[in-house]
Design goal:
Belongs to the DegT/DnrJ/EryC1 family. InterPro entries: DegT/StrS_aminotransferase, PyrdxlP-dep_Trfase, PyrdxlP-dep_Trfase_major, PyrdxlP-dep_Trfase_small. The protein has 364 residues and is of the alpha/beta class. It is built from 10 helices and 13 strands.
Length: 364
């Protein structure tokens, strides 16, 4: 039985339950379930929080990535650079536009895209770069700007993170984020958003998510049906007001893990890239014999996880890219070692001490 979960959504819900119930009651009374005023209010709040001019709510984070790419004109015959070490949705969104994802290896100590390898991945067909702000810290986006290629940030794991004091979401041309329940800012179901300071790109994204329609029954472009629900906007607004405090609590917990792990041999703690203020969506360590260690932690009631066990280029979904084991050696090596420890704003010192004790015993 797992009694220290990887993420404790119940504890978070208890803090916003009354506010959400009151907001939902208003939505139920007005029956404005789609495009209610709460959606526009949240979009304005989140744009301001992320330091950009526009936020467009959509149905989920994968749609957000796809629509950001489509707004840039990405389509069949194009290529987009993605990290080999990421959740499959990053590459999946590229493929859904008809373009081809081009993986690039990661840096071992952070897991972030290795920007020194991006130049070799570029071609005349490259239309976008998709750095992923992995595990809650920003990729070095500024090192990608020299290529002159549009940048779409995958910011699903880094709501509130900053790089050189600039919030993620405002580092590139557009950013996509997910409000999947386990995210730092999570809904009570699926949801996502595209962030940008370009009015033209924001308008294009909004059209895509609303059947290509600026007004009812007018469809100048082919679109999709992907909007942020009013009920979810209520949840997200309530949580956004608490996000800074929750991220501070995550940072304190990460500092505590670092101190506890300092005397544990066989465990490599995460490294923060210089210039980053992370929000610790995940606390990912590296260990030998990871699968055995994970099994031991689960047996001890510790809800550890793996993010991610298979690099994009080795998944069956992208076998058609033609890559083989060994093509991206760092991502492949770390995929067998990475282990995500329980981390959420409400985690206690006692819980973390127990996690580290169980981890040390399993590693030894």
């Amino acid at each position: 039985m797992i009694d220290i979960p990887l993420v404790d959504l119940r504890a978070q819900h208890e803090q916003v339950a009354d506010e959400v119930a009151e907001g939902w009651a208003e939505v139920l009374e007005t029956t404005a379930f789609v495009d209610g005023r709460q959606v526009a209010e949240f979009e304005a709040e989140f744009a301001a929080y992320q330091g950009v001019e526009h936020c467009v709510g959509v149905g989920n984070g994968t749609d957000a990535l796809e629509f950001a790419l489509r707004a840039l004109g990405v389509g069949p015959g194009d290529e987009c650079v993605v990290p080999a070490n990421t959740f499959i949705a990053t590459a999946e969104a590229v493929a859904r536009t008809g373009a081809t994802p081009v993986p690039v290896d990661c840096v071992a100590d952070t897991g972030l895209i290795d920007t020194s390898l991006v130049a070799a991945a570029l071609s005349p067909r490259t239309r976008a770069l998709l750095p992923v702000h992995l595990y809650g810290q920003a990729a070095a986006v500024e090192e990608l700007k020299r290529f002159g290629v549009p940048i779409v940030e995958d910011a699903a794991q880094a709501q509130g993170a900053r790089r050189h004091d600039v919030p993620v979401g405002g580092l590139g041309d557009l950013a996509a984020t997910s409000f999947y329940p386990g995210k730092n800012l999570g809904a009570y179901g699926d949801g996502g958003a595209v962030l940008t300071s370009s009015e033209e790109l924001a308008t294009a994204v909004r059209l895509l998510g609303r059947h290509g329609s600026p007004r009812k029954y007018e469809h100048p472009v082919l679109g999709f049906n992907s909007r942020l629900d009013t009920l979810q906007a209520v949840v997200l607004s309530a949580k956004l007001r608490r996000l800074e405090g929750w991220n501070d609590a995550r940072r304190a917990a990460a500092d505590r893990y670092a101190a506890l792990l300092s005397g544990v041999d066989g465990v490599t703690p995460p490294v923060v890239l210089g210039g980053n203020l992370p929000v610790w969506h995940l606390y990912v360590v590296r260990v030998a014999e990871r699968d055995r260690v994970l099994k031991a932690l689960h047996a001890a009631g510790i809800g550890a996880g793996i993010h991610y066990p298979t690099p994009v280029h080795l998944t069956g979904a992208f076998a058609g890219l033609g890559h083989a084991p060994g093509d991206f050696p760092v991502a492949e090596a770390t995929a067998g070692e990475i282990l995500s420890l329980p981390l959420f704003p409400e985690i206690t010192a006692a819980q973390q001490e127990r996690v580290v004790e169980a981890l040390a015993e399993a590693v030894e």
